[in-house]
Design brief:
about 1000 residues, 25 strands, 6-stranded mixed beta sheet, 5-stranded antiparallel beta sheet, disordered N terminus
Amino acid sequence: MNPQPCHSEPNSPISWATAPKPILPPNAPTAGYLCGGGGIMTAGFETAGIHSLWNIDHDTSDPFLSQAIAQIYQTNFHHPVIRQTLQKVAASDRFNDLPTPDILVLTQSCKHLSKSNPKAKETQSDIDTATAAIKAFQTFHSPLLIIENVPEYQQSTSWQLIKTALIDLDYQFTAKILNSADFGIPQQRHRFLAIALKGSREWGVGSREENFPLVPQPTAPQPIGWYEAICDLLPHLEDIHPTPAQLQRLTNLPSHFLQQPLLIERVGAYGNPKVRLPHETSWTIRKSIWLDQRHNSRANAINIRLPDGTWKNLGIRGAARLMTIPDWFWLPDEAWISGSAIGNGVPSLLAAIVANAVKPYLPTAYPVAFSHKKVEVLPAIQESTSNKQKKANEILTQNQPTGSITMQSTTTSTFLDNYNFPPLTSSQTIALAREVVELGFTHTGAIAKLKEQGLELGYKLLELLEALGEAEFKQLLKHCFPPEIVRYYRNLVAQAKLIEKCPQLYDQILNMPICHAAALLAGTEEQIEQILTEDAKWTVSLIKQRIKADNFSIAPITEIAIGKPVKILASDSEHSGNLAIVENIQENQDISVQLLSGELIKFDFSSVKAIDPDTYLELTAILATSANLHEQFKTAADSGDERLINEIEQKLSKLDKCRRQLTTRLGLSDKAAKNLANTITSDLSQSIATQTDCDRVFRVWDIRENDREAILTKAELLAKLRTKNVDAQPTTGEIAVAVATCLQKPTTKHGGGGIPITTREYSQLTELVQEKDSVIQQLKAELDETKANRENNDKDDNISSQLMVMQQQIESLHQAYESLEKKYSEAISELETYKQILPSQPDSKDEVKAQTFEPGDIVRIVKSPIDALINDIGIFKQVEIENTICGPREQAVVILRPSTKFQMPVYISNYQESLLKMPLTEAELKQLVQAEYLANKNQELSEINEYFGEQINEAVYQLGRCLDRLGVPGWDKEGEYVDESGFTHQKGKALSQGIKAMAEILANVEPCQEGFPEEIEF
């Protein structure tokens, strides 16, 4: 089959997608939704001109997801969602508190009946929901009911109950299975649809057995392909890299497939993906594809492969197009939330078709059947074409949340005299254009006064607040205005309070977003001035964090000092706003600083401002960690490891949020932050984190005590996975990643709690544990084998020969011990001699700074960040240059423990303060090291000798007990040997006598020649 061309060019989006959100008149038909979900179906009804009144929706089995989906509905249709189950609303009789809609829509949950559910079965909860819906039908008596669900719903008990109730309530109804692809929707999606009319016999529509004329019939002569729906989005979709498994599965496709764009469902390690050609419709997009097996969000669920070999991620907006959701419909970035709303929804275009089909059957006056409940119905607009044209020339009407705004237009204008309209433009269009331009100029001229008018209203509100009190003031606003207006008025009050607090900042406060006012009120005047005068991009959350950090109980050190970071304030300097490190402070209050570029510049003391050094160091650690992760990202991209790519991207995203917070906290401009990032290298994140580093990080981020252990555990896990060593220590970069994970930890059900680890980390950790378990099992097996061999040897070998070998080993060990003890005594004497001639550690830094060091000098480490190195002695090797964020500096290389296999170089910064020259030669140092080595060796041998001594005592004890039972004279049951003279012997002497006695006994034992008795069975 030859591929069909795309019906539209990539730059020409499909019409229903980019249409603006409709502005409905106040008398538009209305709809109420029972279990309305995220409002995908409601979007289609709004497009058809049916206004949403309310929505009742809540899922107790997943409250977090239910709340998030309700927020989608509330954001798009600007009215709160009743976030309770339908059963609970029915039980509390809250239906009577809601306005009656013209259309009542029931879209109860289908997850228990859908064939995609392997355990599909109707539950009691489904039946209870249907019963609650029947009570809503009885309460509202809306003229038209629409019921939607999966095809399996028509066989359910819920539908049987509803059908019986519809007959009792005098509704005429019909039901049908619709395929969305038959209506020009680029997706195969079968849905059950039932439509019921109240009192339709009087209206002459037909009986319940017939197909109502209002049931929509298929309208698309041929299906719309997925490519036509999303082709204009392709340039903006995310580029991705396929996994080797994905590429392998595509090798089975015909060659002409790869010459066309392909829609591919992403699958795991097993199974074949679904593939669709450009002219074909998509498969049914379900909720489950947006969640992985661990119930984590899965944003990369559907891919697109283009003929040139590049791959794209369809993403949420692309999936929304396949559901015919218009572009104006807001969806959150979290794939598991938006994907769930899409997967449970009805295509918006199909909903619009259904709505347009039933609108003509809405009565202008309800029949007598509705007389028991008051129903307010606005009459339909019935104006002639001439009246509508006259109205268009006289007024311009725009729907607002509080009603309509009508504004008179001018009759004459010269704004468009020089504009050339297209030749076929009608006079009516030109007149409308003149009206719009004139109104636009009038409105633009009034914008400059809007802020002053808002502030004037704010002062009035503040005066009312002081007169009524906080509680009564809030109650009054909530009674008179919708919630959005109340929030705006409260922000006006905060703005008025802020101007009274800081009148000198009038212009800055008036020009800032009004929502910032309440957050700024919590700060001091100095903090408010700093925030409003800095060029950083502020948000409410960043303002709160900045004020919280400044008011933290442990005040950061911000004095200007040598080696500390500062920010340049000199407005007349090109370096204003940049960071620098203080090099020198002179008596005339001049200060020399080193810029990040290495350039030295002198400023007046008042032209620089000290910044928190801890926050500065934490920012550099985050930048270095990000640089290191970028390098890892390039490696992962080259290898095509998409899972690793996603994990690195998540870490970078979290670190970037932390970077923005610290940048704002330090008051850095975007340019200064970029300059700092350019000077940081990834090497700075690879140093082992000390306790000082951890304390600094916890102080900067105000980490609670109960979170610190989790952060350190996460960092240690990253170190173990990096080194494959269970004893690895985390680096500063791994501490930064752990802290960022804690600060940005998900709060949703599917995101996990605490500080989660990724799937890859979990797998690698499992491998380490399995490897460790394998080693343990191997050691256990070897130990069991050794024990078995030992038991066999005890049975087969002569006891006397074993004991003789043991005695020989003990005697050899004693000789080695005596020899080493002699060497140890000599080494100790030499060591004491050297200690007497070694100088003590200097008391003042001046004595140390006066020293000069040459290669080959013997030095002692008197100062080091690593406690284990202090007082260690080594050979001064050379001086190297170390590049740091503060510029290059010298460090000494010292060789410790020369002429041994343990010798190693260490790097000592500030070596003139940290090293002390020793009056020793290199040969003497080697003798000293050898003496220490012999001392340690003697200690080890002593421990071995003590162990063998214990073994000898045990052997004598067991042997003595045996000889006592055999009646050998001189031995008792305590295993002690007493000779003829009455002396008690232990250890070697007792063992020797025991061996002789045992040998004599064995010599008199004759081996058995008859074998085992017949009655013994084995």
